[in-house]
Amino acid sequence: MAPPVPPPVYFWHRTDLISTWVIAALAFITRFIGLTAPTSSGTPIFDEKHYVPQAWDMTKAGIELNPGYGLVVHPPLAKEIISWGEMLFGYSPLGWRVMAALFGVGTVVMIMSLTRRLTASWQVATFAGIIAVFDGVLLVASKFGMLDIFLTFFVVVAAWALVRDHQQVHNRLHAAWLDGGLGDSVFGPRIGFRWWRFTAGVALGLALSVKWSGLYYIAFFGLTCAFADLWLRRRYGIKRYITGTLLRDVPAALASLVALPVALYLWSWRNWFGTETAVYRHAVADGTVPADSPLRMLPDTIANFFYYHSSVLEFHASLTTSGGHSHPWDSKPVEWLVAGRPILYYSNTNLECFNGAECRQMIYLFGTPIIWWLLIPVLLWSLWCVLLRKDRRFIPPLIGFAAGFIPWLIAYDRQMYFFYAAPLIPFVIVALALTLGQLVGHGKEVRWLIPARAPRGTIAAYCYLGSVIAMFVYFSPILYGYTIPEAWYNSIMWLPNWR
Questions:
Q1: Where are the alpha helices (DSSP H) in 236-323?
Q2: Measured distance CA(141)–CA(415) in Å, rounded
Q3: Regions of the chain short of the pLDDT cut 50
Q4: CB of 436 closer than 8 Å to CB of 459
Q5: ∠ CA 465-471-473 to the nearest 5 degrees?
Q6: What is the distance between the alpha carbons of residues 87 and 77, in angstroms, rounded to a whole number?
Q7: 354 phi and psi, to 5 degrees?
Q8: Taking a C-beta distance cutoff of 8 angstroms, is the pair 439, 385 a contact?
């Protein structure tokens, strides 16, 4: 049996360092420009009005009080992270947005890192970094004290760590194969402790501690990890590779990718357990839990915790279109595929400027069209590459996209918004970068190109990247909230559904 080809060994070069620092600097500049400008008379805007005061509560009491609504409906971690900025800069726009901006920069860098791991190419990683810097959704999500950029960051970190884990296991099996160390067991060898899988579990636990939608990624990434192990055992000629995977890989995977995230999720609630004034902290004692509830069979603290979660679940389950809940910026998953319905974060109209002309300031969570309008084609191309060209590099972005998209299709009746799609776009960007990498160096040379000849594929790739930057600049008024004339605003509202 000829040995399977191991994953390429990629060494960090000076070009990686330079390209990463350049992209990180661009991400920092674009996210910190105008970071403190849009406010509502000095107060938070849009859904910041929920999370920013909750984070401020955490700087003083360690828990979110949310007295206006009586129930905090998301786990505490993201608000705790926001509170770190408020501790440093006070209850101010910089204080409640600085951590989101930093995590936004980190998200761009991690998208590059994931792409580099899949391609072993600093050039393709740079393509991904450029697209990520100039995507409107990732930009705007990084400029406000809300939750989605934190979820996105941890999800991308988890995907990157699992890719590294798969490559590490592949290398270990390959080295064992070369040394004749696969052993005599029909189940194959034990792999040893897998720190990258453990790292992925930490990231998934932190994602779950930001939003419950982190559960989707735990399920999809966990299953993918198990099937990847099965594929490797089969590839290296293990006779009973299915049983070997079930016995030697799955139990440890459950510990790292399920038990560990659950433990971290519980850890994120430590302040709730440690205080006497948190919401539903004494739900059993004060009679909030019904007398006939099965929860009363549990210890009071556990029963209170489960009752809190059942109340949150009931809140989310009740937000359905059929139940009468509607919102002017409601957006369904099918619309996300073409960024068909952005969401308005900030509006200041009827301003006078430019010699008495009517002007306005608007900020939308808005996907750069030249990126988002290629979402469906690039996903179809990714499937083609996986199924027919056997290019496994496209599997991680496909799995990452599916984890953030398919569950929302199942819950289609729920009230949804475009910011739910924020964790999807990093994986689309990775797939786009992989596709651009396939173009580079292919096609006939264009001889008239000055200063040097270049293949048509290379020209197409760089023209696309230039178009991404140009379109970002064109739509920047509704990403940063510049004051622009009414006519200018109308000229960039290409689709009626954008208004």
A1: 241-248, 250-254, 260-268, 270-273, 300-318
A2: 19
A3: none
A4: no
A5: 110
A6: 15
A7: 50, 65
A8: no
CB atoms within 10 A of CB 448: 6
* Residue 75 near residue 209, CB atoms below 8 Å: yes
Q: Which long-range contacts (CB under 8 A, 24 or more apart) does 409-416 make?
A: 409/333, 412/332, 412/333, 413/320, 413/321, 413/322, 414/316, 414/319, 414/320, 414/321, 415/319, 415/320, 415/321, 415/325, 415/326, 415/327, 415/330, 416/330, 416/331, 416/332, 416/333
Q: In sequence order, which residues have a C-beta less than 8 Å from that of residue 62 and are 6 or more positions away?
A: 271, 274, 275
Residue 44 to residue 68: CA distance in whole angstroms: 15
Residues 318, 109: Cα–Cα separation, whole Å? 37
Q: Which two tokens stand for residue 232?
A: 């490797």
Q: What is the pLDDT of residue 252?
A: 94
For 1-29, write each residue's pLDDT tens digit: 556 777 777 788 899 999 999 999 999 99
Residue 326: Cβ-neighbour burial (10 angstroms; 0-12, 13-18, 19+): exposed
pTM tops 0.85: yes
Token couple for 479: 């990403």
Looking at residue 2, the DSSP 8-state letter turns out to be P
Report d(CA 93, CA 336) in Å as an integer: 29
